[in-house]
Amino acid sequence: MRHQLQTKAGREIDAQRKSTVEPMIGIVKSVMGFRQFSLRGLENVKGWMKLVAMAWNLKRMFMLVG
């Protein structure tokens, strides 16, 4: 690993690993404090996640317009 990080290609790959893959998910977790589901079952969790995504989109729209 040390040798790989000393090469230019290795540093570029390592830099990509440090980026946030899904910024929306990271923001929802850190800013909105949504870290875990309190429901059971995939359908319930899907519905709750849709609600969280809608809240995020409304918050974003308000910031962009207002």
Question: Which helices and strands, and how do they pair?
Answer:
Blueprint: H1 2-6, H2 8-17, H3 23-30, H4 42-65
Description:
The protein has helices at 2-6, 8-17, 23-30, 42-65. The chain has 66 residues and is mainly α. The longest helix is centred in the last third of the chain and has 24 residues, at 42-65. It has a domain at 21-66. The mean pLDDT is 84.
Mean pLDDT over the full residue set:
84
Count the helices. How many? 4
Shape: elongated
Residue stretches low in confidence (pLDDT < 50, at least 5 long) are none
Key words describing this protein structure:
single chain; 66 residues; mainly alpha; 71% helix
Please summarize what this structure is:
The protein has 66 residues and is an all-alpha fold.
